[in-house]
Structure formats: structure tokens, C-alpha cells
Specification:
Length: about 90
Amino acid sequence: MRLRRIKKHLQAIAADDVLIAREGAGERLSVEELREALEERGIVTEGLSTDAMRARLRWWISQTSEAGNEDPIRTRVLLVARNAIGKHDA
């Protein structure tokens, strides 16, 4: 049951990523919307400046866009792991 919830959440994130990419990688998001978007993706925002949060979201969107037709769930799980170990540069 838990795995199904995680998959459903990551599918929703994948759909949201497409929308964010279309809207300029979140450049028009408010600080609170930006924080929420990152936290939904498993990215800790505590201690990050607004510019750093925007850069992290751009990184995420560019990585998911580059993944193309790969498994969207697998792609996002790997991105969460890469972010956790500090591999969030382009």
C-alpha cells in the first residue's frame, strides 16, 4: 500500500514537472510556492536562499526533461537520491 502511494505521488510530481517546465522552470513561483514544490520533490529547503531554491528547481526540471521517455518514477527517485548526497549541479 505504501509503495502504491509513493508511485502515485511521483506520478503526480512528473505531471507537475511538465507544467513547471512549460512555465519557465518556476521562475514566477512565489517563495512559498517554490518551497512547497521543492519539498514535494523531497528537497530540503531549510537554509537555502530564494536564489538557491530556484536553482535547485531548475536543476530538477532540467534533469527530468533530459530523461525524456525514461521511467518517470525511477528518474525522480534517482534525483531525490542525487540531491541528498549533494549532486544537484547540472
